């Protein structure tokens, strides 16, 4: 994944990342989920990031994605 084409837009646990990912997909944005902890586990290494994932979106969709992410984050904050 080229860092010039994609930008990390969200980081969190599996449940929160899934919520944000679903909202992005509903808007026609296909995010990439990166799970370093799972990759390390599968390779046989211990991981401090177990359960945490990162979401990346293509730079062309960044502005649209950030509007959605900010809305979802706001909804999650008011729900707690």
SSE blueprint:
Blueprint: E1 6-13, H1 14-26, E2 32-34, H2 36-42, E3 52-58, H3 62-79
Antiparallel strand pairs: 1-3, 2-3
Concise account of the structure shown:
This protein is an alpha+beta fold and 80 residues long. It has helices at 14-26, 36-42, 62-79; strands spanning 6-13, 32-34, 52-58. The protein has one domain: Alpha-Beta Plaits (2-Layer Sandwich), CATH 3.30.70.
Would you mind describing this structure in some detail?
The chain is of the alpha+beta class. The protein contains three helices and three strands; from the N terminus they run βαβαβα. The chain has a three-stranded antiparallel β-sheet, covered by helices on one side. α1 (14-26) crosses α3.
Label this structure with key terms.
single chain, 80 residues, alpha+beta, Alpha-Beta Plaits, 3-stranded antiparallel β-sheet, 22% strand, globular
């Amino acid at each position: 994944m080229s860092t010039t084409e994609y930008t990390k837009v969200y980081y969190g646990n599996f449940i929160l990342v899934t919520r944000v990912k679903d909202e992005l997909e509903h808007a026609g944005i296909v995010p990439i989920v990166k799970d370093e902890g799972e990759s390390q586990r599968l390779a046989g290494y211990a991981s401090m990031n177990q359960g945490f994932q990162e979401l990346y979106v293509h730079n062309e969709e960044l502005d649209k994605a950030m509007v959605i992410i900010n809305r979802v984050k706001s909804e999650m904050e008011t729900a707690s």
